[in-house]
Structure formats: C-alpha cells, structure tokens
Amino acid sequence: MREKILAFIEKNSRFDLKELAIILGVDEAAVVDELAAMEREKIICGYHTMIDWDKTDTDKVTALIEVKVTPQRGQGFDKIAERIFNYPEVNTVYLISGGYDLLVILEGKSIRDVSQFVSDKLSTLDSVLSTATHFILKKYKDHGTIIGKMSKDERMLVSP
Fold first, then answer.
1. Where is the Transcription regulator AsnC/Lrp ligand binding domain (predicted)?
2. CA dist., res. 105 & res. 90, Å (int)
3. What is the spatial distance between Cα 39 and Cα 28, in angstroms, rounded to a whole number?
4. Cα angle vertex 33, ends 31, 36, to 5°?
5. What is the 3-state secondary structure (H, E, C) of the chain?
C-alpha cells in the first residue's frame, strides 16, 4: 500500500484521501495512518506547490550552480554541502557525478542577486574550488508537469 500511496501523492499532493482509500480498497483511516507514519519516518519529506512565476508580477530568477569542492577528511562532501544548504537563498543541493561535485539550485530577485551570492558567499568558502552558473531562461516541464501551454505545430505538411 505504501508504494501506491506514494505514487499517487507524488503526482498530486492534494489528492483526496477518501478517493485514494477507495482506489486502494482500504478505509480512509488506514491511508491517514500510513501517511502519518511515512511523514514520521521522513519518507515523505514535505509537500510542495508548483507555481509558474512567469505568470505573476514577482521577479524571480532561478540558477543552477555547479560547484567543485575539496572533500573534507572524514566528512567527504557532507560538511560543505551542509554549509551551502543552510543559506536561505539555496533551495536544493545535490551531490552529482561528472566534472563538478555539487549542484546548487537557488532563486533570487535578479541575475545580479544570484551573481552576488555566488561571488560573495559561495565562492569564498574554503572548500570551494570553482563554480559554473547557469540561469533558467524558460521552463518547459518541471517535476513531470508541463509548464504553460505548448504552441501548436504550425508547419505545413510536405509530402514527397
């Protein structure tokens, strides 16, 4: 039952519990109890709302920052990752494979705000060797959800 609940709420965290219980063939109390248990066990870590900020008056810039670091003896990447994720501007930190070690995702009001964070806070950390900043220009799909309405293909059909 646990995996089925997770599959449903991953796509829509506002799923009606009564409907979910009917789909799973259990009573609503069982679903509520299972959700509470998964929250206590930190299997469910939070609930989020996806917002298309381009359709609001809020100025928001999202950046993906690749960070190369020197791992610390006995702590690997965890200690530097913790220092980075404790900044309030930082939304996400991943340990990644490839040419960089960490991927940091953060939001700011402008490109200048993000650039200033990188130069004043991130790049000055002792373990940070280098960074590469990439700004999100447009979102097409996020967390499995298509953002906005895709335009209709208006090309003419050409047949041989």
1. 65-138
2. 6
3. 17
4. 110
5. CHHHHHHHHHHCCCCCHHHHHHHHCCCHHHHHHHHHHHHHCCCCCCCCCCCCHHHCCCCCEEEEEEEEECCECCCECHHHHHHHHCCCCEEEEEECCCCCCEEEEEEECCHHHHHHHHHHHHCCCCCEEEEEEEECCCCCEECCEECCCCCCCCCCCCCC
The candidate with the shortest Cα–Cα distance to 134, out of 99, 92, 95, 106, is: 106
Residue 142 in tokens: 């996020």
SS3 at position 63 = strand
> pLDDT digit string (tens) for 60-80?
999 999 999 998 888 889 999
